[in-house]
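dude i think i finally got it to work??
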Amino acid sequence: MFRTIVVLGLLATAAATEAVAQTVPVDLVPGRRIRIHQKNAKPVEGNFVSLGPDSIRFTTTSVDTSAVARVRITRFDLYQGTKSGAGKGAVTGLLVGAGAGALIGLASSGSDDDSWFEYSAGQWALGGAVGFGLLGAGVGALIGSSSQLPRWQAVVLPTVTVQPNGSEAKGVAIGMRWQF
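look at this
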C-alpha cells in the first residue's frame, strides 16, 4: 500500500512538473544552429525545426529532416558564432619564442672579446627570452587570428521521464532534468 502511494505521488509530481518543464529556451527558434550529443554516437549538427514532448526535429541539409528522441540526448548545444584563435596563438608563440630566445641568449653569451656588451649568461638568456617571446607572441596572434572556431553554449532541455525500471518492470524510475 505504501509503495502505491509513493508511486502515485511521484507520478503526480512528474505530471505537474512536466507542464512547467516543457518551456523552451528563449534562444531556441526555428532555423537556429544546434548540436545534439547522444550516448555512444557522434554529435549531430543541424538547424532547429521543432521541439516536441518526446523528440527534437532538425534539418541537417536543406532537404533532410531528422528527429532525435529527447531521452537519448546527453547534451544539447546552441551555436553562438565564431571565436578567433588569436589569444591561443599568441600564448603558444610567446612560449615557443621565449624558450627559443632563452636558448639563443645562452648560446650567444660565451663571448669574451672585452666589448662593452658584457652581460652574464642569465642576462643574455633573459634578453633573448623577452625579445623572441614578444616576437613569437605577435606572429602567433597573426597566425591564430586566421582560424575561426565555432562557439557553442550548452543548454539543458527540461525533461521529466517516468519509465519501467528493470527487465521485469517491477519498479518505476523517475528522472528529472532542468536548469536554474
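The radius of gyration is 29 Å.
im so relieved honestly
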